[in-house]
Amino acid sequence: MCLLGAVCFETSAQELFTHNTTLLVDSDRRPQVSLDGEWHFIIDPYGSALYSWDGHVRDDSYAQNAKPRNDGFPVEYDFSKSPLLKVPGDWNTQKASLFRYEGPLWYQRDFQYGKKPGMRVFIHVGAANYRAVVWMNGHRVCRHEGGFTPFDCEVTDSIKDGANFVVIAVDSTRLADGVPSLQTDWYNYGGLTRDVSLIELPQMFVDNYGLHLDRGTDSEISGFVHVVGAPAGSAVQVSIPEVNATTTAYTGQNGTAVIHLRIQGLELWGPGHPKLYRVRIAALNDELTDEVGFRTVEVKGAQILLNGKPVFLRGISMHAEAPYRTGRVCTDKDVQTLFGWVRDLHANFVRLAHYPHDPRMTRMADRLGVLVWSETPDWQHIEFSNPHTLKQAQQELTEMIRRDRNRASVIMWSVANETPDSLARTSFLDQLVQQAHSEDPTRLVTAALFMPPLIGGKRIVDDSLGAALDVIGVNEYIGWYQGRPQDADTAKWVMKLQKPIVVSEFGGGAKAGYRGSSSTRWTEESQANIYRHQLGMLAHMPQLQGVSPWILMDFRSPSRNLPGVQDGFNRKGLISDQGKKKLAFYVLQHAYASGMLDHGKP
Ligand code: GCU
Predict the structure, then answer these.
(1) Ligand 1 pocket, 185 CB below 6 A?
(2) Is the link from the previous residue into 250 a cis peptide, with omega within 30 of 0?
């Protein structure tokens, strides 16, 4: 259902908006023609060019990139004379006129292409927030809903040798039945927010694969390779040259080959030793290489084991907000700056909230040995009773897992954040937890739960979703949203389930540079004070296996409007959006450097 008054594509309970897309694993490792750069744009505030009056996508308007002419039906647009936007990037922080724009916006660019005989061509979109429709030379090739996961669409039949034009309509309208839904505590940045490119593939190619170290071993690697179009019995070779390991397996009826390798002396991936191996996959005329780390992650009682050993997650939460310039993270520089700060904190874990981040983030985490919590945007109130919303959430979960399945850094999939405990909600999320376990039995599944109320002086973590989760995430804001900072000193936590607990959010706000007493809200001293009391409490919290305080850096949020303090930013960052470290940064840095929380665990 659309926002009141907004025209948009009506979907039925069963039908998803996403159509005719696939997701090519490791697209960033494929030979490609980048379409990043400057694209013309036209805004379409009433959606009259994108949607017909009855809510269907129109192919007869801007998609055709027509040129104004003197006869026939008047053409009332001209991309070649229209302004430009950079891709990748959100549109809101590129143009003051688009800062608060939510709705349909059309992108168009021309490009030259040299068609190669026998090759198939896909257009790859790293992410488009929120809905997107793609046309190649006027032919519609696909639609996609979901603002934080990639999609690939075949253009082999619509792309030409020589001059081409591509048009992508992106509609950032928030939808009640969407994932996320109408309200978020982050900025709804619209646009082609991640890389766009053309990927060339042979007729039969690897579109999906997974390789992992079997739990309980340090030498058994298992997995699968799926080859599109491969007749049964096709050979698939997987090799890891550095350890002289090669295996050949054969595809079944469904194009999938089951892989198994035994490797002695494998160096396992982990914080402090982020060993990545170059893996080469060859099948028929296709070849794919990737850098993969091998590690196991599992729970044992209330402990998280990494490569069989207990690990404590010294973490920090992050939004995909670009440092200094703000807007969506989409460059290597953004990622280097953010992870530079993670390292300064002596953190070994990041919670990428509340949606899958740019693939550069998980690649960097792989290289640096930083553990990752990756999450789908089932944030607070979504339509848990709406079958369409469930299908959309399932699609986004599948896409998140498929994109980062081979990232050793990702140890947990989170299916939700702060969702009110109800039958409809738990049945909805239970299905996502089962889906995550079946699509990826090698990782842990979690969710960030609301802080339990204070009952008889105790906070009892007893959420109906807990039973399904491997790791229980709890958000708590003692000293900010609830009570005074010192209340943490006497807080009593009771965990109903014998499972690892991660305090996935805690903290408070401060305006960088605002100094004063620790009892004055918004001063750096007051935030640091909250952290000191929190760390004292957490050091004694039962079953605590990790923390990811809220949050590394201040980020834009439309609901944070205290003048002179927030001005459109959530100020719970330990670092301001302009890179100024607040006092609390050093409180947490010291706690992590001294091992205050992890009681000697690595
Ligand atoms: C919530 C929520 C975050 C939000 C934070 C806050 O717990 O999960 O998305 O930004 O609290 O209020 O700052």
Answers:
(1) yes
(2) no
